[in-house]
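4.2 Preliminary Data

To establish feasibility before requesting continued support, the project team ran the inverse folding procedure on a target of 353 residues. The structure was first converted into the token representation described in Section 3, and no sequence information of any kind was made available to the design step. The complete token record follows.
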């Protein structure tokens, strides 16, 4: 089997990991890495045994495919240069900073018959993969994604930075058009929003609540899901899935606790959480998610199969994220969400009140 020549554009926090993994795959040649920060680029190239370029366009004639891990503001311009050549591209999430750019990328990929994959890495989380193997028809979903301030991705707000992971997951689970969006958010550090909440209603009746923060004291990545089949909870950090379902005895219409004799009520009480409300805890083993994502990209190139996260899926996530950002901005403007005072005095002497 011939080796695929792959280039990486952007070798910051995540791009350097893409380069590291690709340089170690037996069926891939890391043809080069590109970044305007040439000092950083050369350091990554040296570690990965490849060449460094200051301009991504220098890679166009050197590669069979590209990974774009540059800042979001550059995704469209960089990816389009490769797509116009008919070259497969994996673009880190979010696909683009706005809907028009995302739509053009999808159109270019279709026009030139090029694979466009989006790096929504949580689709490759073993706990989410296990959930997707279960017969689940969600009615209500709650998503929480919190992190501390990293100093990265400051060109976008927390919706496009963190919440978009869960927007993509929920869109995949519901497979239904968005009907309505409610949102609010706060810019703590200036510029874009750093905390956000949203409620999205889908045409099939499912309701999803989203909460995201990038100024939280401790990290959290979890999803809770209620359906006719039962309850599911995903801990993305621990790769753990909890499944809860009712026994046949407790299925709707089978029992009425208001009309039980004493013996049946006592039996139900003692066996409620052993026999009747059944819980399965699943620790989901799996390899590195970034490696799995890259392998999916390479498989799509070699076989012509559709990647797990297509350009269309990435575009849909950007579209929903954009609606949420517009909603929270409108809400902020309507209610003038400017702090008028303090709940309590500053803890540090000398801090202005």
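Position-by-position output of the design step:
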């Amino acid at each position: 089997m011939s080796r695929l020549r792959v280039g990486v554009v952007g070798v910051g926090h995540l791009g350097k990991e893409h380069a590291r993994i690709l340089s170690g795959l037996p069926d891939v040649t890391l043809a080069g890495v590109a970044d305007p920060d040439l000092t950083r680029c050369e350091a990554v190239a040296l570690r990965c045994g490849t060449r460094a370029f200051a301009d991504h366009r220098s890679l166009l004639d050197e590669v069979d495919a590209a990974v774009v891990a540059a800042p979001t503001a550059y995704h469209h311009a960089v990816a389009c240069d490769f797509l116009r050549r008919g070259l497969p591209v994996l673009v880190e999430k979010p696909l683009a900073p706005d809907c028009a750019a995302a739509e053009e990328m999808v159109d270019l990929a279709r026009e030139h018959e090029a694979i466009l994959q989006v790096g929504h890495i949580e689709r490759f989380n073993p706990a989410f993969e296990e959930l997707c193997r279960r017969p689940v028809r969600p009615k209500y979903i709650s998503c929480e994604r919190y992190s501390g301030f990293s100093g990265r991705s400051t060109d976008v707000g927390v919706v496009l930075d963190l919440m978009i992971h869960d927007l993509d997951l929920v869109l995949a689970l519901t497979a239904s058009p968005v009907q309505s969006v409610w949102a609010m958010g706060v810019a703590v550090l200036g510029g874009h929003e750093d905390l956000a909440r949203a409620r999205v209603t889908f045409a099939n009746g499912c309701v999803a609540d989203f909460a995201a923060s990038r100024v939280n004291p401790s990290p959290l990545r979890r999803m809770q899901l209620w359906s006719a089949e039962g309850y599911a909870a995903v801990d993305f950090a621990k790769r753990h899935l909890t499944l809860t379902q009712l026994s046949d005895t407790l299925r709707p219409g089978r029992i009425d606790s208001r009309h039980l004799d004493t013996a049946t009520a006592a039996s139900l009480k003692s066996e409620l959480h052993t026999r009747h409300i059944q819980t399965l805890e699943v620790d989901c083993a799996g390899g590195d998610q970034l490696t799995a994502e890259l392998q999916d990209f390479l498989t799509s190139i070699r076989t012509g199969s559709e990647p797990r996260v297509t350009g269309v899926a990435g575009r849909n996530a950007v579209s929903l994220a954009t609606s949420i950002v517009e909603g929270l901005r409108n809400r902020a403007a309507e209610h003038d969400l400017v702090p008028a005072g303090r709940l309590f005095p500053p803890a540090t002497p000398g801090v202005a009140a």
